[in-house]
């Protein structure tokens, strides 16, 4: 879809192979990490912890958006229950697409008034309500400084993905002409402007408006992590160290207390703990490791904010 207007030929090629990939995944269902040939390489860090079912619905939803073919809409309607669409899991990331799926499919309901998809809209609303501290429903944890927090490693993956969904859903609600442009969270009604402000608050925190005054994006601002858990950033460049560095020979750099010699500009690290504390420690990968699944949704958020400097 991104290349449809600028390079339609390339766009058609991508779509054709996306359809083939979906058909293959639907025909040969299963988790990739169940394959004995690749399990040792994927686990324990990147096993398929949450199953493949949500990815099938996620793929069908995107193919519906890209093609507008009823085949994929029918797939979602026919397979939603068996593939766990009703699980209403408030999670969105590299391994779990449920919250993103609900937001994406909600656009069909909001634009087309398709009542068969109303459950996705209800689940998306429920997810948004968990992000509203004033909501009477149980809601997500925030640090004292206002950062979305979930236990486990690389917490900023939750802050960036949720900020992305907040902005997307706010836009969907703003564009609807058939439904109320707000979310009913018990005694609190939340509109698009409020959802956008929630997202902006997460962005501001990540970029330095937090109790430590630290930007968690490397190279941004005057105070950011210096000892990130990243091989290329922590080992000297070939200009400074032309000799070959074998796999295990990087330990001396990993264990060093010196700042990384190569600044990985733009990388977002795992982030602080639940009390807003962050130790600039290369060895604590749960906090100091940058990942693509932290950065990728943040790019979408920043693009929106750059195009809408004063969102309302």
From TrEMBL:
Residues 1-302 form the Glycoside hydrolase family domain. GO terms for molecular function: cellulase activity. It catalyses: Endohydrolysis of (1->4)-beta-D-glucosidic linkages in cellulose, lichenin and cereal beta-D-glucans. It is an enzyme of class 3 (hydrolase). GO terms for biological process: cellulose catabolic process. Belongs to the glycosyl hydrolase 9 (cellulase E) family. This is Endoglucanase. It comes from Trapa natans (Water chestnut). The lineage of its organism: Eukaryota, Viridiplantae, Streptophyta, Embryophyta, Tracheophyta.
């Amino acid at each position: 879809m991104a290349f449809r207007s600028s390079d339609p030929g390339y766009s058609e090629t991508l779509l054709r192979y996306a359809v083939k990939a979906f058909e293959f995944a639907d025909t040969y269902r299963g988790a990739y990490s169940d394959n004995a040939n690749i399990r040792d390489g994927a686990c324990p860090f990147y096993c398929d912890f949450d199953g493949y079912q949500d990815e099938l619905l996620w793929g069908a939803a995107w193919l519906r958006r890209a093609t507008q073919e009823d085949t994929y809409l029918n797939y979602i309607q026919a397979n939603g229950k068996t593939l766990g669409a009703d699980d209403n899991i408030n999670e969105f990331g590299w391994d779990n697409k449920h919250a993103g799926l609900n937001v994406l499919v909600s656009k069909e309901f909001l634009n087309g008034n398709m009542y068969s998809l109303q459950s996705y809209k209800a689940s998306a609303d429920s997810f948004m309500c968990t992000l509203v501290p004033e909501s009477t429903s149980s809601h997500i944890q925030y640090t004292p400084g206002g950062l979305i927090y979930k236990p486990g490693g690389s917490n900023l993956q939750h802050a960036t993905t949720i900020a992305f969904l907040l902005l997307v859903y706010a836009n969907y609600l703003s564009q609807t002409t058939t439904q109320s442009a707000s979310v009913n969270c018990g005694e609190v009604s939340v509109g698009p402007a409020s959802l956008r402000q929630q997202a902006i608050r997460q962005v501001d925190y990540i970029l330095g408006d937090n109790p430590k005054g630290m930007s968690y994006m490397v190279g941004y601002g005057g105070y950011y992590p210096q000892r990130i858990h990243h091989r290329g950033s922590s080992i000297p460049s070939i200009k400074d160290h032309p000799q070959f560095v074998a796999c295990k020979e990087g330990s001396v750099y990993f264990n060093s207390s010196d700042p990384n010699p190569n600044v990985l500009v733009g990388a977002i690290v795992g982030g602080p703990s639940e009390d807003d504390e962050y130790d600039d420690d290369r060895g604590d990968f749960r906090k100091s490791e940058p990942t693509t699944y932290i950065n990728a949704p943040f790019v979408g958020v920043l693009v929106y904010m750059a195009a809408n400097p004063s969102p309302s």
